[in-house]
């Protein structure tokens, strides 16, 4: 049975709300992910993980918010970003829409670090004066269980952006798309110390092929399947059924 909100009718949502006030909201970004990572990695990963968590915990899952705060990636073609204030406004209005119908427990599964400040700001906007709302932010790649696996298999080469972990997860969930990704690219040297925040041009100059400290040639669909399952198990434990 699907728990995808978009595949329900409004009477089905009304019925669900009689016994449960929880919803999972997957968010991510549409941004460059180095020479061999798909541009959609951050929302594809959180969306696929969220759908599985929804099925397992019998919790509705909203459509994914595919766009986030990715201004620092704008010097790479294909990146689509909202500015922080716009993103906070979009998140706030989407949470408020759900709250209006009676949802009270919001679990956001996030796939992009640049979204975190805006997500926290939007939570504060919506929580203002409300007693019974609960927000949980789960940055799936920050889960300790995921970190243990990545450390063991990739070590420091996992990096910070276009990581082995996130490329692997989407190699598992989007195998067809990766068949068309050229594999004859060469990785430029990458640095591990840098100022933050960076302008788009600074980012491109510092990280010329888009990766931050990672060696995603180590990524495989097999690793991705394991990391995906580890993340789903850990999130299910966190949110309960
Ligand atoms: Ni990413």
Notable features of this structure?
single chain; Rossmann fold; 4-stranded parallel beta sheet; 9 helices; 4 strands; binds nickel (II) ion
Written overview of the protein:
This protein is α/β, with parallel strands linked by helices and 241 residues long. The protein has one domain (5-239): 3-Layer(aba) Sandwich (Rossmann fold). The chain is built from 9 helices and 4 strands, in the order αβαβαβαβααααα. The chain has helices spanning 10-19, 41-57, 84-101, 116-127, 144-154, 164-173, 175-179, 200-206, 221-239; strands at 22-27, 60-61, 105-110, 134-139. Strands 2-1-3-4 form a 4-stranded parallel sheet. Helix 2 links the parallel strand 1 (22-27) and strand 2. Helix 2 (41-57) crosses helix 9 (221-239) and helix 3 crosses helix 4 (116-127). It is globular, with a radius of gyration of 18 Å. The protein starts with 9 loop residues before the first helix and ends with a helix. 44% of the residues are buried. The model has no long low-confidence stretch (mean pLDDT 96). Nickel (II) ion (NI) is lined by residues 33, 41-42, 112, 166. Nickel (II) ion binds at residues 33, 41-42, 112, 166.
Condensed summary:
The protein has helices spanning 10-19, 41-57, 84-101, 116-127, 144-154, 164-173, 175-179, 200-206, 221-239, and strands spanning 22-27, 60-61, 105-110, 134-139. By secondary structure, it is α/β, with parallel strands linked by helices. The two termini are 15 Å apart.
């Amino acid at each position: 049975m699907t728990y995808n909100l978009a595949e329900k009718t409004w009477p089905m949502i009304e019925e669900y709300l009689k016994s449960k006030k929880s919803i999972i909201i997957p968010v991510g970004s549409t941004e460059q992910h180095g020479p061999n990572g798909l541009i959609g990695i951050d929302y594809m990963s959180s969306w696929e993980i969220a759908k599985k968590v929804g099925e397992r915990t019998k919790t509705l899952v909203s459509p994914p918010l595919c766009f986030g705060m990715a201004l620092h990636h704008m010097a790479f073609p294909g990146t689509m970003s909202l500015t922080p204030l716009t993103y906070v406004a979009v998140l706030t209005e989407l949470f408020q829409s759900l709250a209006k119908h009676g949802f009270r427990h919001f679990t956001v599964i996030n796939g992009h670090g640049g979204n975190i400040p805006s997500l926290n700001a939007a939570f504060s906007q919506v929580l203002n004066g409300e007693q019974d709302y609960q927000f949980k932010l789960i940055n799936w790649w920050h889960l300790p269980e995921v970190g243990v696996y990545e450390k063991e298999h990739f070590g420091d080469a996992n990096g910070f952006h276009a990581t082995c972990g996130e490329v692997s997860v989407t190699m598992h969930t989007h195998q067809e798309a990766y068949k068309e990704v050229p594999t004859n690219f060469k990785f430029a040297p990458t640095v591990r110390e840098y100022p933050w925040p960076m302008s788009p041009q600074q980012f491109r100059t510092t990280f010329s092929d888009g990766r931050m400290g990672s060696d995603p040639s180590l990524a495989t669909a097999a690793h991705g399947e394991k990391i995906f399952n580890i993340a789903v198990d850990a999130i299910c434990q966190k949110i309960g059924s």
